[in-house]
Specification:
By secondary structure, the chain is an alpha/beta fold. The protein is built from three helices and eight strands; from the N terminus they run E-H-E-E-H-E-E-H-E-E-E.
Length: 129
């Protein structure tokens, strides 16, 4: 008996805004809107496909009343695929991300950022050819 990692839920104040931000970051599309939640993904999951093999998880943005108060215990890492890391950081800043300090050492090979609601994520080394 096994389970599949099918989605990652992100608590937030404004699911539409955060879904739009992450859709731009990842090249995802909205695949569902219901009950105030917004789900984005690189594919539209079906039960049959999920049973057949592990597929990329979707992101589900869920409205909650409370604000984020401490560093996330879980975060996303992204790797640019068609630009350098600093070029991608510049693009993400233009989308509404900010640089974040979570106590990382100076000169690390990744850049810590925060999405428009303050959720930390890292931009890793580029995978561009």
């Amino acid at each position: 008996m096994t389970s599949r990692f099918t989605e990652l839920a992100v608590d937030c104040h404004d699911p539409e805004r955060l879904a739009a931000f992450w859709s731009e970051v990842l090249g995802f599309a909205v695949i569902d809107r219901s009950g105030g939640k917004v789900e984005i993904g690189s594919w539209e999951p079906t039960v049959e496909e999920v049973r057949d093999r592990q597929m990329p998880p979707t992101l589900v943005f869920v409205p909650v009343p409370e604000s984020k108060v401490v560093k996330n215990r879980l975060h996303l890492d992204v790797s640019p695929i068609d630009a350098g890391t600093e070029d991608e950081v510049t693009r993400l800043l233009g989308l509404g991300a900010t640089r974040a300090d979570v106590g990382q050492e100076p000169g690390e090979s990744w850049v810590v950022m925060a999405d428009p609601e303050g959720n930390e994520f890292c931009v890793l080394r580029t995978l561009a050819p």
